[in-house]
Design a protein that fits this description.
The protein is 77% helix and 0% strand. By secondary structure, it is mainly alpha-helical. 9% of the residues are buried.
Length: 109
């Protein structure tokens, strides 16, 4: 893969992640979209862990799947390959970044 191919891959991967984020965030945040972090905030509301720690658990889940792929050379769950884990990881990191940014903006007010 050369640089141009890598950048094309990046754009395609990010577009795929973006489209998946829109669909999944609708399902988790509700149709009005006013609470994009709702599923993570629920863990904090239940006293399980902070919203950020809840996000980190999901990020580590995806890293574990990628590690298994590296070690075993395959994943057993049908219709969920390493690329799905990569896209989910991208989206969890975007969610984390967005949550922190949102929290910082609230602190400034």
């Amino acid at each position: 893969m050369n640089q141009e191919q890598l950048l094309t891959h990046h754009k395609e991967l990010c577009n795929e992640a973006y489209e998946l984020m829109k669909k999944k965030n609708h399902d988790y945040a509700g149709k009005d979209g006013t609470t994009p972090f709702a599923n993570f905030e629920k863990a904090e509301m239940m006293g399980l862990c902070s919203t950020e720690s809840g996000m980190m658990v999901r990020i580590l889940d995806k890293i574990s799947r990628i590690t298994t792929y590296i070690d075993a050379g395959e994943l057993k769950v049908e219709n969920e390959g390493y690329n799905d884990a990569v896209i989910d990881l991208v989206n969890y990191l975007v969610l984390f970044s967005g949550y922190i940014k949102s929290k910082e903006k609230k602190a400034v007010k």
